[in-house]
């Protein structure tokens, strides 16, 4: 039965200069053992706590701890471990280019074996191993590695980028750091580490085309996601109160690293919404009123004698600074009926056949990547010189959510990955096998650029020694 005994007394510690030292709270009891301390809930500086174990158990750690000036107990809390049976471990074999030294006598529990390597060789793995209760040795047998030879192969180059690595042999824990050329963004792990088995952690990242951050606009704002701006990433423009956006509200990063469309601007809500001067027409004239071409300004088209106007006879300046309809043409009265060239559409294109646009000529509309066609895809030149249907528009498509690649496994540990797609803000958890400690972050998060936050952690053996060359 577990037994805990506490002896208590009241003490007050004084510091030089008249100050009063902090006191310690009673230490916690330990399973299968006893902590002897003076009575009282506040124990003065230098108060001693003595630890002892019940029959059949032995103390692992310090037997005494003292209350310190800062109100904490010295050392680490010991624990009581079942007394060792008469277990023995098998003798250890030699290692190539090194030797193992074992304490003389029977190899009982806690017998220590120490490894060391010949000159010019580096120990990779545990320097010490211990005989365990189950009759096996702790850890794994280390190896002696040629200090002048590579452990891992040189990593292959990456397109549109490079990596930095320290000169000399590529030994365990050598780190490489990747970077991309201007105009490219790193997708994947920025850093990889040479492992004991001669492989690199993770997978090589890629350098993907990225767009420059768009310039700010006067009297407005741009909503831009954080991190690298990869193809199909949208940015959204808005204007301050009292201003109107003239142009595209949304632009997309294109596959060639440029932005779709043209940059919009914010125009004062009380100022004129000017249109550009209309283009002159062959064999005809455009009547343009004097002064600024503000919203609702009307222009009239007419043809010279012997020519017929094909298209609208008038066009209006729209609030967004563009003209209604398509520009008309003046056609000879004796020639075949033709249609005017259809106007271009924002965020898309019109495929025109070569030659004159005569009756029954067909034109097709298409949209840029990231946009969806709203309206008819095809229009036909009609006998009256107009185009069938109405002009379609290209509407921004909802961007698909960014996903991250599955994180690679870690040596001597595991990664807990949730089911389904690894979308932005998905979290993965890292943990280590028994006898190993996680070095690094326990959690990583999928970021908007398709990479994982932080760097991949590693599981380190409790007695593992660093062998990375400086």
UniProtKB/TrEMBL annotation:
Keywords recorded for this protein, A-Z: Disulfide bond, Repeat, Signal, Sushi
| PROSITE patterns linked to this entry | SUSHI
Query: Disulfide bond among the record's keywords?
Result: yes
Sorted alphabetically, which InterPro entries does this protein's record hold?
A: SEZ6_CSMD_C4BPB_Regulators, Sushi/SCR/CCP_sf, Sushi_SCR_CCP_dom
- Alphabetized Pfam families for the sequence: Sushi
Q: Sushi domain: from which residue to which, for each copy?
A: 22-82, 87-146, 150-208, 209-268, 273-332, 337-396, 402-461
Disulphide bond pairs: 24-67, 53-80, 117-144, 180-207, 239-266, 303-330, 367-394, 432-459
Where does the signal peptide begin and end? none
| Protein name as it appears in the record | Sushi domain-containing protein
Q: Which organism is it from?
A: Rhipicephalus sanguineus
């Amino acid at each position: 039965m577990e037994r805990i005994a506490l002896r208590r007394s009241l003490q007050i510690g004084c510091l030089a200069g008249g100050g009063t030292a902090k006191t310690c709270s009673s230490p916690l009891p330990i399973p299968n053992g006893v902590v002897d301390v003076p009575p009282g809930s506040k124990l003065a500086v230098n108060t001693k706590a003595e630890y002892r174990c019940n029959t059949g158990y032995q103390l692992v750690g310090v037997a005494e701890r003292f209350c310190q000036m800062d109100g904490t107990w010295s050392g680490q809390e010991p624990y009581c471990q079942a007394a060792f049976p008469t277990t023995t471990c098998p003798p250890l074999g030699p290692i190539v280019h090194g030797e193992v030294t074992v304490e003389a006598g029977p190899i009982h529990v806690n017998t220590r074996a120490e490894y060391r390597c010949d000159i010019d060789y580096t120990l990779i793995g545990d320097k010490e191993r211990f005989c365990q209760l189950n009759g096996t040795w702790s850890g794994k047998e280390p190896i002696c590695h040629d200090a002048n030879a590579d452990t891992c192969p040189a990593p292959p180059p990456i397109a549109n980028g490079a990596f930095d690595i320290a000169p000399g042999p590529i030994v365990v824990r050598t780190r490489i750091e990747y970077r991309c050329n201007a105009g490219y963004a790193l997708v994947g792990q920025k850093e990889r580490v040479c492992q004991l088995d001669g492989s690199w952690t993770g997978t090589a990242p890629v350098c993907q085309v990225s767009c420059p951050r768009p310039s700010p606009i006067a009297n407005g704002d741009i909503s831009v996601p954080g991190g690298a701006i990869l193809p199909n990433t949208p940015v959204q423009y808005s204007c301050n109160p009292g201003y109107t956006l003239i142009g595209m509200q949304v632009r997309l990063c294109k596959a060639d690293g440029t932005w779709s469309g043209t940059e919009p601007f914010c125009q004062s809500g009380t100022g004129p919404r000017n249109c550009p001067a209309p283009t002159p027409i062959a064999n005809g004239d455009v009547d343009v009123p004097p002064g600024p071409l503000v919203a609702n300004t009307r222009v009239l088209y007419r043809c010279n004698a012997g020519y017929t106007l094909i298209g609208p006879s008038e066009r209006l300046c729209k609030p967004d600074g563009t003209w209604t309809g398509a520009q008309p043409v003046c056609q000879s009265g004796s020639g075949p009926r033709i249609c005017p060239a259809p106007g271009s559409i924002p965020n898309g294109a019109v495929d025109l056949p070569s030659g004159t646009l005569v009756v029954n000529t067909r034109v097709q509309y298409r949209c840029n990547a990231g946009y969806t066609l709203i309206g008819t895809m095809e229009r036909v030149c009609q006998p009256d010189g107009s185009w069938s249907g109405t002009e379609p528009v290209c509407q921004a498509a909802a961007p698909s959510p960014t996903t991250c690649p599955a994180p690679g496994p870690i040596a001597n540990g595991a990664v807990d990955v949730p089911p389904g797609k690894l979308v932005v803000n998905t979290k993965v958890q890292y943990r280590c096998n028994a006898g190993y400690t996680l070095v690094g972050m326990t959690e990583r998060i999928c970021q908007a650029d398709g990479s994982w936050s932080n760097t991949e952690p590693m599981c380190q053996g409790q007695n593992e020694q660093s062998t990375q060359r400086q």
